[in-house]
Amino acid sequence: MAHQHILVPVDGSQISFSAVRQAAELAKAFNSKLLLISLIAENPFDNADFYYSSSIMKEYFVQAHANAEAALKQAKDITDALDVATETRIVTGLVNAETIAQTAQQNQTDLIVIGSHGRKGFQKMILGSFAQDVLAQTEIPVLVIKK
What coarse category fits the chief subcellular location reported for this protein (predicted)? Predict the structure, then answer.
């Protein structure tokens, strides 16, 4: 089965760039299109127990967008090197697996490629597994890249 629309979440980590490389190689083989997304929290201070000013929010959004754009540019450079049709998009909302699953469904994605840090034991218990959460949130096939 050839996957024609592949979604890759990019967070700027090396493991997310590894996922981009793998997805780009798949896309090249299947003549597929890639959608690279970076998630930004719409309001990271929602339900916070402290007061924050609008200047703090503005600074957060400016820096978050700059970081997302830089990560997506680096990821796009990887796909451009393989001459793969690629779209990049910043997605605002909740930074969680459900947002990835919804974005994949809205864009008629037939494969999600996601990097996983491969945490084990106490780290996994505390930090969780984002890739595992994506698997639980979608019926779309998910390819987990660990290196």
Answer: cytoplasm
Asked whether the beta carbons of 94 and 41 are under 8 A apart, the reply is yes
| Phi, psi at 17, each rounded to 5° | -70, -30
CA distance linking residue 104 with residue 42, whole number of Å: 19
Which CATH architecture does the domain made up of 5-145 adopt?
Answer: 3-Layer(aba) Sandwich (3.40)
Contact present, 49 and 23 (Cβ < 8 Å): no
